[in-house]
Amino acid sequence: MRTNYQPVIGLEIHAVMETQSKMFCDCPVVDSTHAIPNDAVCPVCAGFPGMLPVLNQAAVEFALRVALALNCEIQLNSVFERKSYFYPDLPKGYQISQYQQPLAVNGWLEFESAGKEQRVSIRRVHLEEDTGKLTHRQDEESRYSLVDLNRSGIPLLEIVTEPEMHSAETVRDFAYELRSVLRYLAVNSGNLEKGLLRIEPNISIRPEGSKELFTRVEVKNLNSFRSVERAVDFEIEHQEQQLLAGETISQQTLGWDDVAAKTVPQRSKEVAEDYRYFPEPDLPPLMLQDEWIEEIRASLPELPSTKRKRFSTQYGLKDYDAGVLAAEIAVANFFEASIKQAQSKNAGELANWISGPLFAHLNDLNSSIDEVGISPESFASLMDLIANERINASGARQILAAIIESKSDPEKLMAELKLEQNSSETEISKQILSTLMDNQGQVDAYLAGKEELFNWFFGQVMATFSGKANPKIVRERLQAEFAKLKAGANK
Question: Across residues 385-399, what is the average pLDDT?
């Protein structure tokens, strides 16, 4: 729909920090989707009266890693506050969070979207604790909810952007980049489906050229990047239709119904005053030293945006290929280890095999590159077999699948599967002549102008070698024989 409205979108992102223990107690951090309900719970995270929280230093360090990677200003003094609201899985009746004096402010993240570099400002990065988890059930007699507090008190990092995005595509690309940063820093797995990374868009629209925003809404329950993009697109169009119809947009929190592909109201949107923030009396202000901050800054890894640029310049990769390889730190490390081991040093070919056949196998197995167990050494050896023309692309794909299944050596697999290609020009030329003699009618048709028959002849010759002839030599020798025949016919 073409309108005179501009979407304005900011994000609130909650990232579960994968520390060993919870934010304010010694309970272990467990996977709440698999662990026994209420197994990792103590009086502190269960909200028993009189229990005192103790701040997890590792959670602070993880938060600082993220804030520094997002180019934020670190506030040496920050304050924890009680954010008061009632929900069945919030046992204390309040959440310990930060608001007026957060850990970090005024950052930014650069990323690529719509073919160009973009930057979105980060308003704040702060620490808080997670809530518990409700499971809703219904039987023939009643409806009820079960409370699991395993997640209660797990360290959360909230990242709030400025409302500087104007399309669902930009939101998606920003979210992808942020997830890559979190994974590079080893603080969060980036798993949206399990709720370990929660991306919540705040969406409003305004007349083109105006600075005045109409009422904004927040969308929750987005468990995939596809859902994020679809929900933002839907809500933009929905708000435009409301305004064009003369309706009023209500400030509210919405859920996303993935099946119906639409947003659904959940509750009216609270404002800061509704939460009655006040300083947490059981926690002193968090006071940081410059020396510790600089130690953490020095320990940061090379981040995705820097790695993308380096891959392009150092290895001569296309921007797209560099972006694909740098998106996941495990893939980036695999690529660099493989190119280091390979004799051929053909970075472009190696990148194509990672993003093509290898990724296809990973998708089929629903696994990541570090889960399947293929080593950079084996992959580099396979690339050398291709570069040295000992196997063709078809044989290489078979060997790749066998490596993933058996973890065996590529050279050994090539011998076992009898996939080494024939590069003998003498044998190939002999077979080409035999094929041409056996198919004189097709030869005459080719010479008469039906040149698409060339691929038919190519296939016939390859079939006589069971697909194991060097396709480059077959093509070159076949072209040479047809050139001779054409020259003879023109005399």
Answer: 92
